[in-house]
Amino acid sequence: MRALIALLLAGTLTVALAGRALAGDDLAALKAQFRRPAEQPPTPPDNPISAAKVRLGWALFQDRRLSGDQSLACVDCHQPERDWQDGRPRAVGAGGHALQRRTLTLFDTAWGETFFWDGRAPSLEAQSLIPIEASDEMDLKMVDAIARLQRVGFYQGMFAEAFPEEPHVTERNVARAIAAFERTIVSGTTPFDRWVEGEEDALAPAAKRGFALFAGKANCIQCHVGWRLTDDGFHDTGLPNTDDSGRGPIINVPMLNYAFKTPALRNVARRPPYMHDGSLPSLRAVVDHYADGIVERPTLSDDLKRIALTDEERADLVAFLEALTDDKDPDVRWSPFN
Amino acid sequence: MTRTPMSAGRRSIELAAALTIGIAGGAAWAAETAVTQKDRAFSVQEVTLRAGDELVMHNDDTRAHNIQVNHPKLTFNSGLQEPGEDTRVRFAEPDRYLVFCGIHPKMKLWVEVR
Questions:
Q1: What ipTM score was computed for the predicted complex, to two decimals?
Q2: CB B106 to CB A253 under 8 A?
Q3: For the whole model, what pTM was predicted?
């Protein structure tokens, strides 16, 4: 606790960062970086949200006709009751084929910059069709998918209502509807949010100490920043697994090999296991990795500091991460069904 | 479109913000506009160039970046741009271009070419 101490003074948390006390305006500025958005999520100009479009997107999201053998829908990996993931270390695709990476949650995906762990899709519209066509995922060519959907009576009316200017079952409209639906998946308010907004008792002392570590000595904030707790960037965090090159081949920069997108952390405690390869079973194991487990190699992120943490500090960090859990009451401020 | 180390003199000028330096290019004028990258952000969010102008981006950050343009009229990838390095991109045709970092995609710079 030499470099960083957290104190409760007169009911106000005082955070010391690198030996410098942080309180009042500084703490307010730090909290402001994590404040939930007041504005509706960013939406492409050619795909404004509407109730009809979201209804269609949800229908398509659940439709197993969108896999080659009609055994898989988007919802089979992105399960609402499992926080839009599947609970598995790594996803399972067509024919029970195990994939290399863990299913990403869809919480707050509307605010994402790029999609997939390697960021290869620049928009949700572009992303939505890729797993359908991937031979090891849903394994269905889009031309065949469209032919199938065109034969389903109720889709004619749903597409017409969702896209009155282009009332047809087309690849572009499938992508736009699924993306519009996904933009409505917004995580709910957490104890951390209530504390950020001034409710001093919303966080237990351990979680407050954990936040001080997160933003200070442990340096998590370097990448896990902003209200979704991600910089949307790509980092090699020194996991032992080098079977998967990650971002490097996507941007043709070998120094980005083994770099993956910083995952958002809302509801993280409900979403084990962790990391792109599902290799760490618990939040404690993740914290232990950053303290003791980093594998040194030239591709490690410039933002990855080597840290030492006591047992108590590790427990405090986990307490903070657990305070990012909502009460399963999603944020519907921007729902088209309001 | 090359990367070159930057002189101390140039750096001090460019730290101010984006500015345009005219360089004689025969009969016509070509110009270059300089911006910096620091703390995972460009020094400005938008610049306006004339067709044929060059944009110089100086990495004044503590981390490497990767400058990209993905546009029907211009595709560019700087590879790894280490701290201290310049990346230069010439914009030949009028249009609106997005310059972004392939490592930190929140880093965006809109380039309006007239």
A1: 0.90
A2: no
A3: 0.89
